[in-house]
Amino acid sequence: VLFLIPWADKWIVGTTDTPYTGDRREPLAERADVEYIINEANKVLKPKLKIEDVIGVYAGLRPLVANKKDSATTKLSREHTVDRSAPGFVSIAGGKYTTYRVMGKDVIDLAGVELRRIIPESVTEKLPIVGADGYFALVQQAERIAEESGLSTDTITHLLNRYGSLISEVLEIIEDDPKLAKPLAKDLPYLKAEIYYAASHEGARSVDDVISRRTRLAFEAPNSAMDLASDVATIIAPVLGWTPKQKKDSINAYLDLAEREIESIEEALASA
C-alpha cells in the first residue's frame, strides 16, 4: 500500500515493505527505498515526481508476528496478537502506533478474563486525545487569542493545529520569555517556544528527539535541519540542565544521523 499524505505545504509519501538488516537502533532509509517509493508514486501521479523533489527521508521498523523464523515479511499479518503466554501473564506483539488504543483495549479485555472479574466496557474510543477537548471552540477564537498574545493569527492557527487546547501552555512559555515568540528559522512555522516546550512538556531528551519526533523539522527543513541543530540545542540545553559537553554530543549525534540519511538521497540521485 502506498500513501500520499498532505503535510502543510509538502507531501509525505510511503511506505516500503522490505526486510531491514541494518542497525535496528537507528534505522535509515536506503537508496532502494527512495527509488521504490518514487517509482510507485509515479504510477498514479502527473506530473511525475523526480528524485530532486525529495527534501527529506525518515525510516522506522514495524514489528511483525511470525510463526516461523524464516517467514517472508510480505506474507506476515500486519495485525497485533494478544496472547495468554502463561497463567496470569498477558502479552501483546505486532501492531503499530496508529492502532495503540485498540491494542490497549484488547490487552485489558483479556486481562479481565484472566482475573475472572467483570470489568466495565472500554470507553477509550469516545475519549478525546490530549489537546482535542475544546479545540473547535478555540479555533473560532483564533483572532482574539492572537490579539491578546501579540502573535499573528496564522501563528495561532499553527499552534492550535499542533497543540489544540494545550496552546495555553505554549503561550505561558512565551509570556515568561518573549524572546521565544520568535520563529526558529525563516520560512518555517515553528517558534522557539515550541522547541522549548518539546523539552519542558513533551519529554524530548536530545536534539534528535526535537528535530525528528516532537517536530518534523528533519524533513520539513532543508538539509534535514542540520543547520538548525545548534539553535535547537541552545534552546533545550538549559531546560535539560546540560553541560557544554552534553550539548555538543547531542548536536553531533544528530548531525551524524542526518548525514547518513542525506547520503541515501544523494546515492539515489547519483543512480537516477
Explain what you see.
The protein is mainly alpha-helical. Among the domains are: 3-53, no CATH class; 73-126; 129-176, no CATH class. Helix content is 45%, strand content 8%. It has helices spanning 31-41, 100-115, 135-139, 142-149, 153-163, 167-176, 192-200, 207-214, 217-220, 229-240, 244-271, and strands at 3-7, 10-14, 81-86, 89-93. Helix 4 (142-149) crosses helix 5 (153-163). The protein is globular and about 55 Å long. The model has no long low-confidence stretch (mean pLDDT 91).
Task: Summarize it.
The chain has 272 residues and is mostly helical.
List the helices and strands and how they pair.
Blueprint: E1 3-7, E2 10-14, H1 31-41, E3 81-86, E4 89-93, H2 100-115, H3 135-139, H4 142-149, H5 153-163, H6 167-176, H7 192-200, H8 207-214, H9 217-220, H10 229-240, H11 244-271
Antiparallel strand pairs: 1-2, 3-4
Radius of gyration: 22 Å
In which order are the strands of the major sheet placed? 1-2
Cα end-to-end separation: 24 Å
| Unreliable stretches covering 5 or more consecutive residues | none
Going by helix content, strand content and strand pairing, the class is mainly alpha
Number of strands: 4
The major β-sheet equals:
2 strands, antiparallel
* Mass-distribution shape: globular
Strand content: 5-15%
With helices defined by DSSP (H or I, 4 residues minimum), what is the helix count?
A: 11
Q: How much is the average pLDDT?
A: 91
Element order, helices and strands? Answer: EEHEEHHHHHHHHHH
Helix percentage: 40-55%
